[in-house]
């Protein structure tokens, strides 16, 4: 049986009264690995930030696991787009990963032995164990990305929302991340991932959302990943522009 774990109804989001998202409807299938694709400025990050309640929409409704409450976000791990993180913040790799545990503990309690064990295992999975005491500012872009993925794994969420996790990453790391995502899917997790490389959509994902301000097509790759749908979002002048 299929189940919608996220539902977005008639969403409108604007910056300075200019709409970035226009009457957008989507559902995220539980246990899917769904790609969001669309050109630069299509509103992909805006959609994700709206789901994470980091932006207040003009109108519309977003449900996570049937709930509109902020509490539902406890089950969601979010990896922001690269440029949106302040990397100069003085903190170690291990501390960043441990932050993933705070959703389970609240901010007051200190992480215990078990949290450390979980954090180290996530770092190992991302092959970043050796960097655990390094300052986050002293890592390469791809290494930082892996630390953020380790933090998301550590959170042990139901839903993983990732904004271009493969951007600027080498092919070995890319394969490692995809392998990790697929094994977490086997455990029942759901993934919503912004992805730019159209050539790998079919190989990495089972569902896709093709968008440009609104959704042009969404569903199983086998049903909606057609040249016509891709063209519509990338080449045609959208009616709402
Ligand atoms: N904070 C902001 N203030 C004003 N306009 C913004 C802001 N953030 C995004 N926008 C505009 O909203 C539109 C959608 O931006 P968004 O970042 O969601 O696109 P995107 O699909 O994630 O693009 P990319 O592929 O480049 O990451 C763009 O036209 C962008 O210029
Ligand atoms: Mg973006």
TrEMBL record:
SMART domains associated with the record: AAA
Keywords per UniProt: ATP-binding, Nucleotide-binding, Transport
Entries under SUPFAM superfamilies matching the protein: P-loop containing nucleoside triphosphate hydrolases
Record-linked Pfam families: ABC_tran
One example GO MF annotation: ATP hydrolysis activity
Keyword ATP-binding attached: yes
UniProt domain ABC transporter: residue ranges: 6-237
CDD domains attached to this UniProt entry: ABC_Metallic_Cations
Transmembrane stretches, start-end: none
Signal sequence region: none
Family according to the record: Belongs to the ABC transporter superfamily.
Protein name: Manganese/zinc/iron transport system ATP-binding protein
Organism: Lacicoccus qingdaonensis
């Amino acid at each position: 049986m299929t189940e919608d774990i996220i539902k977005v109804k008639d969403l409108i989001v604007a910056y300075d009264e200019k709409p970035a998202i226009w009457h957008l409807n989507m559902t995220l299938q539980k246990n899917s690995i769904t790609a969001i694709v669309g050109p630069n400025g299509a509103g992909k990050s805006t959609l994700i930030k709206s789901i994470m309640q980091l932006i207040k929409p003009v109108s519309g409704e977003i449900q996570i696991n049937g709930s509109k409450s902020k509490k539902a976000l406890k089950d969601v791990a979010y990896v922001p787009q690269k440029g949106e993180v302040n990397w100069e913040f003085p903190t170690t790799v291990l501390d960043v990963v441990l932050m993933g545990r705070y959703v389970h503990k609240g901010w007051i309690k200190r992480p215990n032995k078990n949290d450390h064990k979980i954090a180290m295992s996530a770092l190992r999975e991302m092959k970043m164990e050796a960097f655990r005491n390094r300052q986050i500012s002293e890592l390469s872009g791809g290494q930082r990305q892996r630390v953020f993925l380790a933090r998301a794994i550590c959170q042990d969420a139901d839903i993983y929302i990732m904004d271009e996790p493969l951007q600027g990453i080498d092919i070995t790391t890319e394969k490692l991340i995809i392998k990790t995502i697929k094994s977490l899917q086997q455990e029942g997790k759901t993934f919503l991932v912004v992805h730019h490389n159209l050539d790998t959509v079919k190989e990495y994902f089972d569902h896709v959302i093709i968008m440009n301000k609104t959704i042009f097509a969404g569903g199983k790759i086998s049903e909606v990943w057609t040249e016509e749908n891709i063209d519509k979002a990338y080449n045609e002048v959208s009616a709402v522009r």
